[in-house]
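Issue: copy button drops trailing tokens. Both records pasted manually instead:
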Amino acid sequence: MFGAVSRNVAALRPGAQRAFSTGPALGYQARLSQYYHNTLRDDLMILQYVPPQVRARQEVMEEARLQAIKENAGGTPPNPLRKRLKVRPPKPRVAESAAHNTPYVDKVTVHIRCREALQNKHNLLSALMTLQVVTGQRAEVIKAKNDAAPWKLRKGMPIGAKVELTGDRMYEFLDKLVEVVLPRMKEYSGLRMDSGDGMGSFTLGFDNSAIGLFPEMEMVYDMFPMVFGFAVNIKTTAGQNPSGRLLLSGLNVPFVHARKPATESYML
């Protein structure tokens, strides 16, 4: 706790230069950061603890399952004349639960895809200023890496904007998103239980109506000629989706189970 405070206070020394921000400089530890370090981290360590006997049994079962898949694998043998395709590296082994490897939120990326910037690049200014107002940090332009003739897209053209948040600014943004924005969205129920990239990171997508729910946008919403939808990518250090869901659930990010379709009722 005191390390974060001293780090922020040191950055505010007279004569120190910092990037322009629409929000006040943080000279304290964010509320969500205090909650994680003082309460949630210990709870996650206890909930994810697996006894050594159970862990050894799980490892034996996993090795047997992988061996059975390898033996029963069929199909056409690989063509030796074809270039070898890139093989995705195996997932890292989940370490034993301890205080030093408890999962935490590494960074949060907020990005806007601006399709209108293909016709006029000045339309991207609204997206840049929107991210700066909402996150309190200057946004950077995303440029196309390849050409796409169907969309009249050329390499190097601006197509969006993004902001990468870490530290206390990241926790401040998550706190606003979870406590202010999501409760005011009537049609948003939460993330699905099967969401995630398999490595413990999750992405939330919102339409253009959600950007006006942030407290910083309420007073200046009419000043923006264009508003866009945005996506929030939450990257965690959890190696698996269940650990990431447990972490985000502790931060009050809602999750919902996929509802089964209602069965048809027949009248006798």
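Record 2 (pasted manually too):
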Amino acid sequence: MGSEGPPAVTIHVTGFKKFHGVSENPTETIVSNLREYMKKKGMPKGLILGSCNILETAGHGAVAPLYQTLQSAISEKDSESANSRRIIWVHFGVNSGATRFAIEQQAVNEATFRCPDEMGWKPQKVPIFPADGEISRVRETSIPVEEITRTLTKKGYEVITSDDAGRFVCNYVYYHSLRFAEQNGTKSLFVHVPLFLTIDEETQMQFAASLLEVLATLC
């Protein structure tokens, strides 16, 4: 067959439903429309868009379906020849006070919800994984966040690198995903987006598509 370059990267994407104070979550729209958007745009070579799921904005409510999709992706990988496919998880969440996109470097083993989640849970200084030790425990993504931020900035997007994903459901999901990725040889990334009132829907769709293309190139 000869040299065929690196194996394709499969990117699975999640967003969130509405929650307290955010009646329309832009990430639900982005993730729901992403497959059709990228088909029209033209899927970049070497990129396979996997599952696109919308999670409840609730710690326990999000984690159960998250693990189902994480595990199904691993099962698909195992059914193929060894290392024939690279897998990345991209989680989108909204920061209603943000004016730019934020690529999150890490998650912290702490659940301190500023308001009850959509299932009424409001933990305070609770470790997400008690087995991981203190709430100060940090897990970092293996994805080159700084390089991705620079590349997207050059493409004209207002984007920064962040080392604080908060302590609400976004951080909660990211910590679970990073832990799973480390244990299963995959990669995980969380991205915070502003409201559509701040950065319009079309620009955010363009950003999401550009992010996936950059990930397929750099990871």
